[in-house]
Structure formats: C-alpha cells, structure tokens
Design goal:
Elements lengths: L1 H21 L1 E6 L3 H15 L2 E6 L2 H11 L7 E5 L1 H9 L3 E2 L4 H6 L12 E13 L23 E2 L6 H14 L1 H13 L9 H9 L5 E5 H8 L10 E4 L10 E9 L5 H11 L2 H11 L2 E2 L8 H4 L12 H5 L1 H10 L4
Parallel strand pairs: 1-2, 1-3, 6-7
Antiparallel strand pairs: 3-9, 4-9, 5-7, 5-8, 5-9, 5-10
Bound molecules: fe (iii) ion.
C-alpha cells in the first residue's frame, strides 16, 4: 500500500511539473497591470495556462525585446497604437498568426495585412471644447482645426507622442503629404501654448482658460468623468471630428506573437482569448475603450461620449506613414 502511495505521488508530481513547464505564456504588456490583470486572471482560470506578466512602457518593452533577441522569453507583445505595432513588425519582431477565429472576429482594417499583429481595443482621438467659447457648429473635421478662427485656441500634446504621429499619418493617407504640411503649419499657428503635458492636461487647460479646444483620446475623458475632476465637464463639450472627406480617427491597442516565442501555441490562444466576447467586455468596462469585435454591448460610460462616424482607412496604413508624419511635424515646428 505504501509503495502504491509513493508511486502515486511520483506520477502526480510528474504530471504537475509537466503542467507547469508546458502550460504557460509570457506576456510583455505596455498596458498597465491593473488594466490587463483582470483579463489574464480570467484566461488562467479558463485555460489553466499561467500568464507570466511583464509590464512596462511601450518603448521600454520594445528595447527589451531587441536586447534579448533570440533568447527573449516573451511570447506575446501587447502594446498601444498602430504606430508602435507597425514599428515592432517593421523590425521583424513578430511571426504571423493564422487563426480563423481572429480573422473572423477582427475586421481587416484593425489588423496587420500579413497577420503579424491584431487590434484588440479601439480608442478615438476626439475634441473636448469650451461650451462658453466655442459654438458646436464651428467644429468640423480635423482639417478645419487649422482655420485662423481658432488662433491661440488649440491645445494638443507634443508631436513626439505616437497618438499625434498616427493622426498625422492618417491625414497624410487621406490628403497627401503636401496638403497635410500646410494644415499642420496652420494648426501650430493656432496653438494656445507650446505643447505641454498629456491628454488630460489639455482638458484641464481648457478649464483653466488657456485654450478652447483640446484634441485627446476618448478614454481619458471617461477616466476624468469618473474622477474628482468630473466637475470641469459641466462647461465642456465633446465632439467626434468628421467631415465629408474624413471620419473620426480611431486607433487600436493590439498584440503580436513574437518570432522566437517559446510557447507559440499558448501565445496564439492568449491573443484569441483577448478577442473573445468576454475579454472585450472587460476591456471596454475597465479601460473605457471600444470593443474591436462587433455585437459587444458597450458600457454606459462609453455611450455618454455620443455617436460617431469612424473613418474607413485601414489602421495599419498609419504605421507605414509614421516616419513621414514625424518629419512633417518637425518641419512645421510642432514641438
Ligand atoms: Fe493613453
């Protein structure tokens, strides 16, 4: 009997060790831990695959993957903005994922054309404006922000930020480089101040009377509406820029499977899970981002922002034009 017990323990230990060894996935995430942890916890619970999570800034993770090279333990890189994903794929970070599930769930416009990365949540770059100093019918598409009527009134962060680089790249894809350069000059002329701070700071600057119109990502607005700062929105309006030529600029957060992933099958499973209905619901409820798959009920917080007309451009186009966008911003003196 004693021998049988010992044998049982040995068999169980082998099973357990085997399970620990094979069923794990290493995730490098530029999303903050509190945003991604509810998703990885659910993934672990549902699949029994342990997620080893490393979180850091997007640029730090990019450098880390480069530094680690072939020996990188990372399976999946999760980051924000099509510009960052494109940069990683351009530097040969990823291997393609052939997944019917991902191709079915995620529209082609939200994923890389060669299946190297997949969008997992959506954010819009939109306008917050002073209700006292701006009439809603004065607002139109992004192009119109360079109109001299907005002289000394526009608030927007630095062009070194990838959100603005992607917006400029998007506009280049719509209007061509020459026209966007003229536009960007006009925009810089309309700045209420030299770019300073992040998106939230632009909203606060309207409330402080420094400018009248701020260009910001949608989730920052909801974060502020759910914070002690919500009072400032009593005198602020929200507008999704669009005109006949260009709808609202949306961007993604997304993920790719790394070229030397030690657990590629589990990496693929994790990305597929993040595109599931359950995970998408958590994304929009916790991060206040729009789901990337259809037919997911968005939380009331997101509905509060209002209706929009999204532009039709494929998001991977932004990446391709990002170098041009950075140089263009430099030329026009957008700091
Ligand atoms: Fe952000």
């Amino acid at each position: 009997m004693k021998n049988i017990n010992i044998l049982l323990i040995i068999i169980l230990s082998f099973f357990y060790i085997g399970k620990c060894w094979s069923e794990e996935v290493n995730l490098y995430s530029a999303r903050k831990e509190h945003l991604i942890k509810p998703l990885t916890d659910l993934f672990e619970k549902e699949t029994g695959i342990k997620v080893n999570l490393v979180t850091a800034k997007s640029s730090q993770l990019h450098q880390r993957v480069l530094r680690e090279g072939k020996n990188s333990p990372a399976d999946v890189l999760l980051t924000t903005d099509a510009g960052n994903l494109w940069k990683a794929s351009n530097e040969n970070f990823f291997q393609p994922i052939y997944s019917e599930l991902l191709n079915k769930r995620i529209k082609p416009k939200y994923r890389d054309e060669n299946n190297l990365w997949f969008g997992l949540s959506l954010r819009a770059r939109i306008i917050v404006y002073s209700l006292d100093r701006v009439k809603k019918d004065e607002l139109k598409g992004y192009k119109y922000l360079s109109n001299p009527i907005f002289k000394n009134r526009i608030l927007i962060r630095s062009s070194s930020n990838v959100y603005n680089q992607s917006l400029i790249a998007h506009m280049i894809s719509k209007y061509g480089e020459d026209k966007v350069e003229i536009w960007a000059k006009g925009l810089v002329n309309n700045f209420a101040r030299d770019p300073a701070g992040g998106d939230r700071d632009q909203i606060k600057a309207i409330a402080a009377g420094i400018g009248d119109i701020a260009v910001v990502n949608s989730y920052y607005i909801i974060n502020m509406l759910n914070s002690d700062n919500k009072g400032i929105f009593d005198s602020l309006g929200i507008y999704f820029p669009h005109d006949n030529e260009m709808g609202t600029h949306f961007n993604i957060s997304g993920a790719g499977l790394l070229l030397n992933a030690p657990n590629p099958a589990n990496g693929k499973k994790l990305i597929e899970f993040l595109a599931s209905e359950k995970a998408q619901l958590i994304y929009s409820n916790n991060n206040f981002e729009y789901p990337v798959i259809e037919n997911v009920e968005i939380p009331n917080d997101l509905k509060r922002l209002g209706k929009y007309t999204e532009d039709s451009t494929n998001i991977y186009e932004y990446g391709k034009l990002s170098f041009k966008a950075i140089k263009l911003a430099d030329r026009v003196g957008w700091k």
